[in-house]
Amino acid sequence: MPIVKTLQDRFEKFTAKTPPDVTGSRYAASKDIAIPRYLEGSATMAAIVELVRNILTSEGVPPAQHGVYYAFAQKARKAAFSHSGKSLSMFIDGLKAEFTAKGCDPAILDKIATLIAG
Questions:
Q1: CATH of domain 7-117
Q2: Are 76 and 95 spatial neighbours (Cβ–Cβ below 8 Å)?
Q3: Is the pTM of this model over 0.85?
Q4: What does the CA dihedral 90, 114, 75, 18 come to, rounded to 10 degrees?
């Protein structure tokens, strides 16, 4: 199984990289806001990675090929945060074409797209 950052891994790295004495007084003043916001954003990414991993495992995709599907999911998730409706659908269709050209199975990409865009 490929090594993929969990939510706990992301959170530990973020908190380790941002000690107030090194980052500065502005960060120290906003750390109580920054950490929950980072945790909320990272939780979405970690949840999508885990759900995509379940799809890939059930479809029998070899672990060495998971990365490209995770990349598709992350790009689709990023688009879903700022687009909706027909705009999102068209964006995801373009991503599907791009990742199909990279060797991904279109049926699996459809499942991932449905997971993200509904």
A1: 1.20.58.800
A2: yes
A3: no
A4: 140
User: Residue 4, SS3?
Assistant: coil
Gap between the Cα atoms of 68 and 92, Å rounded = 15
Domains of the chain: which residue ranges?
A: 7-117
Structure tokens at 116: 């993200």
Contact yes or no for 104/68 (Cβ under 8 A): yes
Dig out the tokens for 82 from the structure: 């700022």
How many contiguous H segments (helices) and E segments (strands) does the chain have? 6, 0
pLDDT digit string, tens, across residues 44-93: 888 999 999 999 999 999 999 999 999 999 999 999 888 888 999 999 99
Distance, in Å, from the CA atom of 99 to the CA atom of 17, rounded to the nearest integer, reads 33
CA–CA separation, 109 and 99 (whole Å): 8
Residues 30 and 88: their CA atoms lie apart, in Å, by: 33
